[in-house]
Amino acid sequence: MTNNSGAQVAAEPSAKRVRTYLGGRLVADTRHPVLVWEHPYYPTYYIPAEDVRAELRATGETRLTDGLGDGEVYDVLVDGTTAEGAAVRFTDSTALRDLVRLSWSAMDQWFEEDEPVYVHPRDPYKRVDILPSSRHVVVRIGGVVVADSRHPHILFETGLPPRYYLPLTDVRMDLLRPSGRQTQCPYKGTATYWHVLVDGTEHSDIVWTYPTPLPESQKIAGLACFYDEHVEITIDGQRQQPPQTPFS
Fold it and tell me: Which residue stretches of the chain have pLDDT < 50?
């Protein structure tokens, strides 16, 4: 797809039915969504304007999107509930003229078919494999062993380093302190976090678990994973270099 500035932006139709809600009311319901990669990390849903049920009220403003140029900004109104500036249309773009981008975070809930989806659409080119392993994984923080396991599950996710999920019985639970933080992943579900207290120093939100992961990620239910970027990981006796990721 060529945008109005002549640059190439990846886009393709999806066969999934996509719905989104605001204030408990249906905002859009489409069987013809378009996935647009505004950046390389994950796609965004663009909805045919004819499938938007809510009122779109022009604000008179424009918003710059890298690779796509300026888009016209709209408020989204449905049954007395308003999401200000939550819709954008690129009416000068041949490929996107009849589509609407709804702000993911401004909506209350998104569905792919009848399953809730969180954070962003699932990328059809991203794969998650979770494999049981007999590798010997040792995690140290400040020289202190905080986990030692010969029964990890290794999660391989496209574009990210392997993650080592360990049984809680192999983790120094006496060093862990519950955190109030939660994050969501469209492939794994909702994660809860823990701080690790080592020699009087608290390492915040450095380990997480998925107590009730999504069905396709059930193998990591209740297992603990450390940020490799911020701890020392040894695999089968070999120290691993910290990966460079957005979490580094």
Answer: 2-6
